[in-house]
Amino acid sequence: MCFKKHKFTLMVGALVVVLLVCSSADLGGELIGVQGRQVTKKEIPPYGMVLIPQGSFNMGLNDQDAITAMNAITTTTSLDAFWIDQTEITNNEYRQFIKYVYDSVSRRLLGEQFDEFLIIEDALGNPLDPPMVNWKTPINPKNSDYMEVLNALYIPPSQGLGYKTLNTAKLVYEYKWINYDIILGKGRNAGVEIMENGTTDVTKAIVAERIPVYPDTLVWLRDFDFSYNDPFAFRYYIHPAYDDYPVVGVDWKQAKAFAHWRTKTMEAHCAKNGLFTPHEYRLPTEAEWEYAARGGLDQQMYPWGGPYTYNKQGCYLANFLPQRARYGIDGGARTLPVGSYPPNDYGLYDMAGNVAEWTITAYDEQSYKFVSAMNPNYQYNVQEGDPIAMRRKVIRGGSWKDIAYFLQCGARTFEYQDTTKSYIGFRCVRSYLGK
Q1: Phi/psi of residue 380, nearest 5 degrees
Q2: Residue 189 main-chain phi, psi, to 5 deg
Q3: Distance CA 413, CA 392 (A)
Q4: What's phi and psi for 430, nearest 5 deg?
């Protein structure tokens, strides 16, 4: 259905203009809403993201189920509009997150001895629990007292390799979120207590997270037995040569923590400039991921269409594992810088190959049969005592070490949420403000 602007809209607009000239005490007795609110007619495009329009598509495999997984039956799905990162999150982008965590941990550590690094009261003089980090106080590296305190973040030369090295286990990101499953009494949750005034005690549904966020650089050694991958273990994340490569060695919770930090960074900017905050950054649902990967080409095997993984010139269109373990024949023996291959019709890069990507969706072989047709998402918030199968999360897109089957838009598989791999990364989405 197409929408048109009708004449009555102009009439109402004229009425509002007339009523606005009235005093605040006399609005003509009409219901016109609160006036003087900030109006943003169009959402400002977030840097590095692409807008995916609302729409419907056929979700699921478009070719034979080669591995007989029987987990991706074709189903009609409709989605709201959303923004998605044009590329996978890179090492250097993730490093911005690590730098923030390092700075905040340093300031909290200094705040235990130096009051100038913490804000303990709000503007009205009320105590803050816990105190906030004071970002205005500079950390002077020439201050020996400061540096002595910060030594706690490092492994001393006598206990390490003869020189001071950062103890990455100290880089912990703390945040809170609301587990709505507890409020709604879903799954194994019994719900929360209804208080005497009839309201819900939401505090019992607040989950406090403490996430060590430094990437697991040893994935390059752990994933491949009897294989020399030491150079990547020691240099892939830290060397500038790999800045534009996708970050790996990040588990599902770390990816979620990154999205939370990204949201808080944007909210702080909006608060500082008197702007309304947009929707939060998050991991995509697997339906959003597949819709974006298709690039508007419904019922096609790959983001570029199909059915082949190379073009007319014989050039491969993604970084994957072709021709029986000929890793480098497609141009990349392992990961490659993001955007090394042509984008799909939405302008998105590496929606097939390079690294597989986390989604927010929990994995169930039969979930397509019971999820909603509108913005489908099977999400399960794992609790203590849950079976290990509940920790499975959907990954999409295939990677540099996968065969072509996993590059298909509709192919789905999973990994456990606390697992890190040298072939799994992620990208973020943000719901669009409006239709």
Answers
A1: -130, 120
A2: -80, 140
A3: 9
A4: -150, 125
Task: Kindly list the domain boundaries of the chain, sorted by start residue.
Answer: 92-271
pLDDT digits over 140-156, tens only?
999 999 999 999 999 98
Question: CA 322, 327, 328: angle at the middle one, nearest 5?
Answer: 110
pLDDT of residue 40: 61
Give CA–CA dist 421/218, Å, rounded: 9
Measure CA of the first residue to CA of the last residue in the chain; give whole Å: 14
Question: What is the chain's mean pLDDT, rounded?
Answer: 88
Give the pTM: 0.89
Which segments within 375-435 are labelled E, that is strand? 392-396, 413-416, 424-425, 429-431
Q: Is the pLDDT of residue 180 over 90?
A: no
What residue type is assigned to position 333 of the chain? A
CA distance linking residue 108 with residue 117, whole number of Å: 7
Segment 17-67, tens digit of pLDDT: 444 444 455 667 889 888 877 666 678 899 999 999 999 999 998 887 777
Mean of pLDDT values over 100-105 = 96
Q: Helix, strand, or coil here: 356?
A: strand
Least confident of 190-194, 228-232, 343-347: 190-194
Quote the tokens at residue 192.
Answer: 């929360």
- The alpha carbon of residue 188 and the mean position of all alpha carbons in its chain are separated, in whole angstroms, by 26
Give one DSSP letter per residue of 344-385, joined into a string: -TTS---SSSSSEEEEEEEP-TTGGGTS-SBS--------TT
Question: Positive or negative, the Cα torsion across 145, 175, 81, 434?
Answer: negative
Q: Using the structure block, give the residue that is written with the tokens 């273990």.
A: 233
Token pair recorded at residue 10: 């102009």
**Is residue 416 within 8 Å of residue 387, measured between CB atoms?**
no
pLDDT the model gives residue 228: 95
* Axis-axis angle for helices 91-111, 252-272 (nearest 10): 70
Of residues 18, 87, 12, 62, the one with CA closest to residue 427: 87
| Residue 244: both structure tokens together | 């534009």
Distance CA 350, CA 247 (A): 13
Give me the amino acid identity at 109.
Answer: L
CA distances in angstroms from 332 to 32, 234, 336, listed in the order given: 60, 19, 6
Say what the pLDDT of residue 39 is. Answer: 64
Distance CA 354, CA 366 (A): 28
